Amino acid sequence: MKELARSQAIHPETLERLRVEYEDRIEQLQNANRQAPGATRGLFSSEYEQISLEALMQERRSILQRRNQLVINDEVFRRIQRDIDLAEARLKGGGE
Predict the structure, then answer these.
(1) Distance from the CA of 34 to the CA of which of 28, 62, 76, 87 falls in 20 to 30 A?
(2) Are the C-beta atoms of 91 and 52 separated by less than 8 Å?
(3) Are the CB atoms for 54 and 67 separated by under 8 Å?
(4) Domain ranges of the chain
(5) Cα 40 to the center of its chain, rounded Å
(6) List of residues 6+ apart from 14 with CB closer than 8 A
(7) Residues 85, 45: Cα–Cα separation, whole Å
């Protein structure tokens, strides 16, 4: 990550957010590896997964509303929607 920061002009807050997300992901994977063999628990707790999915649904409604109000255009709408889709897939992939 330090190499990325040196090679490009990246806002420090963006880099910090990315670092925190990666550290969280690593911790989740380490916790998953510590489980007993045959355990079916995913990377995320069911409570975390449920709240995150609800937040993503709200975000979908919000961007749809903003597109309908012409605050954002279709291209921006689709880009954000794709990000939401990917976040949802990561969540659901972690629980399988």
Answers:
(1) 87
(2) yes
(3) no
(4) 1-39, 42-96
(5) 22
(6) none
(7) 20
Write out the two tokens for 14: 């963006």
Contacts of 63 (CB under 8 A, 6+ apart): 72, 77, 80, 81, 84
- C-alpha closest to that of 78 among 56, 60, 52: 60
pTM given for the model: 0.55
Reported residue count of the chain is 96
Nearest to 48 by CA among 86, 84, 92, 80: 92
Rounded Cα distance, 29 and 33, in Å? 6
